[in-house]
Design brief:
By secondary structure, this protein is α/β, with parallel strands linked by helices. It contains eight helices and 13 strands. The strands form two sheets. It has a seven-stranded mixed β-sheet with strand order 1-2-3-4-5-6-7. Strands 8-9-10-11-12-13 form a six-stranded mixed β-sheet, with no helix packed on it. It is globular, with a radius of gyration of 17 Å. The structure holds fe (ii) ion (2 copies). The site of one fe (ii) ion has 8 residues, from helix 2.
Length: 268
């Protein structure tokens, strides 16, 4: 894959549609870049995809829902691969309000964004979408401090933003379809690039974060950078825990970073 590619809209859980694309990352493979439509009583778009795929992204969105019906746009964080089509979506969705927290709002303000379209999420608050609540949760790891995931109380789907992202050699319909070793290697390589601080954290403390996800027992984990994960929660958490124990999560050195990012890099 030489350029970003839109796969389209695919149902990944009840009421939950993935707007799936992939972005090449140098010679390491491709990174999934997913946004999601949640067909709640008050419909929600989660993130807004890659700007370079605007036309096919909006087409996939419109095939899933009339954008004019969107009530909420949940922004996991303000990286370009999650904000790419925000302005274009808002133009099609006059009823939609952006959900973010204080730091997210400040970053939007720095972009000159119209803050009258922002719903500021206070600490501890939930989003009432009519037939369910979205409970904000901090993912186990992330690359921007404003990051907010959520747990959908109706479907028990967990959205974890960038966490559990993986590089892949070819598209797959779900995480369970990726060969186990390829999933381990892809997750560890991407974690070292996207959240290299993971290699420095206390394993016991991180283990508590991973254990909390296991106890939550989500029906599915959806991520911006992983195909939908059903029945593989302990594979995902175990992979990271073992990688941490083995010292496998190490940031690339300067030469490697220069090699990886000398061209266009679409995602973070
Ligand atoms: Fe990110
Ligand atoms: Fe991302």
């Amino acid at each position: 894959m030489q350029t970003p590619m839109m796969i389209g809209a695919e149902t990944v859980a009840p009421d939950t549609i993935s707007l799936t694309s992939y972005a090449p990352v140098a010679d390491l493979g491709a990174l999934p870049v997913n946004a999601f439509v949640i067909k709640a009583a008050q419909p929600i778009l989660v993130d807004t995809g890659l700007a370079s795929l605007r036309e096919p992204f909006l087409k996939a969105l419109s095939s899933s829902i009339d954008p004019g019906d969107l009530r909420w746009i949940w922004l996991s964080h303000m990286d370009a691969d999650h904000l790419g089509n925000l302005d274009a979506v808002l133009a099609l969705a006059p009823q939609a309000t952006v959900i973010t927290n204080v730091l997210g709002m400040a970053k939007l303000a720095l972009r000159g964004f119209d803050l009258t379209r922002v719903h500021l999420l206070p600490p501890g608050a939930r989003i009432d979408a009519g037939d369910r609540e979205l409970v904000p949760l901090k993912p186990a790891y992330y690359d921007a401090p404003e990051t907010i995931g959520f747990f959908d109380t109706r479907t028990r789907v967990l959205f974890c933003a960038d966490a559990f992202g993986t590089l892949m050699q070819e598209p797959a319909p779900e995480a369970a379809a990726i060969a186990p070793q390829a999933l381990v290697d892809g997750m560890i390589t991407w974690a070292a690039i996207d959240a290299p601080w993971l290699g420095m954290i206390d394993r016991t403390a991180f283990g508590r974060e991973l254990g909390a996800i296991e106890r939550l027992d989500p029906s599915a984990i959806i991520s911006g950078h992983l195909p939908v994960a059903r029945n593989v929660t302990r594979r995902l958490t175990g992979c990271l825990d073992r990688a941490l124990a083995a010292g496998r999560i190490a940031a690339p050195d300067h030469a490697e970073i220069e090699r990886l990012f000398k061209g266009d890099c679409a995602a973070a």
